[in-house]
Amino acid sequence: MSIWGRIFAGTYDRMMARSERAGLAARRDALLAQATGDVLEIGGGTGVNLSRYGAGVRSLVVTEPEPPMAHRLQQHIAERRPDARLVQAPAEALPFEDASFDTAVATLVLCTVADQPQALRELRRVLRPGGRLLFIEHVRADSPKLAKWQDRLLPINVRLGHGCHCNRATLDGIRAAGFDVLEVEHGAIPHAPPHLRPLIAGVART
Fold first, then answer.
1. Could you give phi then psi for residue 164, rounded to 5 degrees?
2. How buried is 106 (Cβ within 10 angstroms: 0-12 exposed, 13-18 middle, 19+ buried)?
3. Of 144, 179, 189, 201, which is least surrounded by CB within 10 A?
4. Average pLDDT over the chain, rounded to an integer
5. Is the pLDDT of residue 160 over 90?
6. In which domain, by residue range, is 160 found?
7. 204: which strand partners?
8. What's 47's domain CATH number?
9. Region of residue 68 (left: phi > 0; alpha: psi -120 to 50; beta: else)
10. pLDDT digits (tens, 9 = 90+) for 34-84
11. What is the DSSP string of 51-95?
């Protein structure tokens, strides 16, 4: 793991704090209130979602492939959600049987996975028939002008954002993976730089 990876993990919560306070946290609360049954969250990061899961959740598994993030996540699991289980694995190779979960959660992670189509296929594979994917992701802008800037800034953003691809058309990717998008809201991440601001939040079903 690179030095920047350790720094990124150690500063992530502080970097996101202003956006969370200005509305991102409320989006998380509203979305994750819908999680039920056996739940899988991919790319759990530092564990910002842990305390947001409600009584409808029967079991919670959180994956995180990056060791510095996983270390912080494990600490926060012990503090906030001791019944949750951490599995250190990439989203593209989930170590679970087919049809293992009722709900999958992806929040600000599908921009960073190395192979987004494969990650989405894996999510669909491990969800039970009729299972739901709850997502909050920053995405490629609808504005051609801003989208062009996202393309130009991509090489820099991938480095500074520790793998974050700022120009991914993630909603199209969710549909291409075979999910039925039940609801989607288009918005913006408050206080984020313009090329990281376009946001989608919603629910898809297998």
1. -75, 120
2. buried
3. 144
4. 94
5. no
6. 3-205
7. 133, 181
8. 3.40.50.150
9. alpha
10. 999 999 999 999 999 999 999 999 999 999 999 889 999 999 999 999 999
11. GG--TTEEEEEEE---HHHHHHHHHHHHHH-TT-EEE---TTS--
Chain Cα centroid distance, residue 118:
15
Q: Listing from the earlier edge strand, what are the strands of the sheet with 57-63?
A: 85-87, 57-63, 37-41, 101-107, 127-138, 198-205, 180-188
Number of separate domains in the chain: 1
The answer, as to whether pTM is greater than 0.90, is yes
Place of tokens 């494969």: 118
HSE, CB side, 13 Å, CA atoms: give it for residue 159: 3
| Cβ–Cβ < 8 Å for 117, 91 | no
Contact partners, residue 174, CB within 8 Å, separation at least 6:
120, 133, 135, 181, 204
Structure tokens at 48: 């910002």
Confidence bin at 4 (pLDDT 50/70/90): low
Cα separation, 140 vs 92, in Å, equals: 21
Residues 6+ apart with CB under 8 A from 150: 140, 141, 166, 167, 195
Contact 112, 92 (CB under 8 A): no
Q: How far apart are CA 152 and CA 191, in angstroms?
A: 21
The span from the CA of 111 to the CA of 107, in Å, is 9
**The pLDDT value given to residue 194:** 96
